[in-house]
Design brief:
The protein contains six helices and four strands. The radius of gyration is 18 Å and the shape is globular. The chain is an alpha+beta fold. It has one domain: Nucleotidyltransferase, domain 5 (2-Layer Sandwich). The longest helix is centred in the first third of the chain and has 24 residues. About 45% of the residues lie in helices and about 15% in strands.
Length: about 210
């Protein structure tokens, strides 16, 4: 058994034990989906502490979050879901040019289908080009893309860039935790405790 699988196994066992105790003593429990996504969020936090300088991957350099230029705010967003359920979750974090926390949001999204799951895998690679393109989009997501374009017009200077998971840890953690917390959650400074370590990690490694 590899060290990665063993670490995931330990966290899964701990999550089950924690869920059992909460049901026994607090009369509340989480679904299997929430437990699974929460465990993966804890695992990513574990990796951040175990590999503070980034995990080395063969043939590919590790990338870190980059602060925006002076006077600009940067918004990182992420979505997460499982094909076996009909719901997903999104998270987003807004930071300034020093990496300082400004605001964050996370919430669950209903009616995410298996078909949308497949489409979203593809749209991750092409959505950015579709949003910035002047050519009309003819996909089933054209209303959403047009909505984004209309909303972007209220900003004097705005750009969209695809970010790999290694530079999007804070938003991904928020999206993962949204599965464990129903409703709409938003924060303004100071940052919530659940992302403090990830924000600090980004600040310590940003260029």
């Amino acid at each position: 058994m590899s060290s990665d699988i063993f670490a995931k196994l330990l966290m899964t066992v701990w999550a089950l034990w924690k869920n059992r105790n909460e049901k026994l003593w607090l009369a509340k429990s989480q679904s299997a989906v929430a437990l699974s996504l929460g465990t993966m969020a804890w695992y990513e936090s574990f990796l951040l502490h175990r590999y503070p300088n980034g995990r080395k991957t063969k043939g590919r350099a590790h990338q870190f979050w980059k602060a925006p230029t002076a006077g600009i705010l940067k918004l990182n967003t992420d979505g997460t879901f499982l094909s076996s359920v009909d719901s997903g979750a999104v998270g987003g974090v807004l930071r300034n040019d020093q990496g300082g926390f400004v605001a964050a949001v996370m919430h669950q999204v209903s009616h995410v289908t298996a078909a949308v799951h497949i489409e979203l895998v593809a749209i991750r690679a092409v959505a950015i080009q579709a949003i910035i393109s002047e050519v009309p989009d003819m996909s089933i997501y054209s209303p959403l893309i047009e909505d984004i374009k209309v909303g972007a017009r209220v900003f004097q200077d705005i750009s969209f860039v695809h970010a790999p998971r290694s530079v999007n840890c804070v938003a991904h953690r928020l999206a993962s935790h949204a599965f464990e917390n129903e409703g709409f959650h938003e924060w303004f400074a100071p940052a919530p405790e659940l992302i403090l370590d990830a924000i600090m990690y980004d600040c310590n490694h940003c260029n």
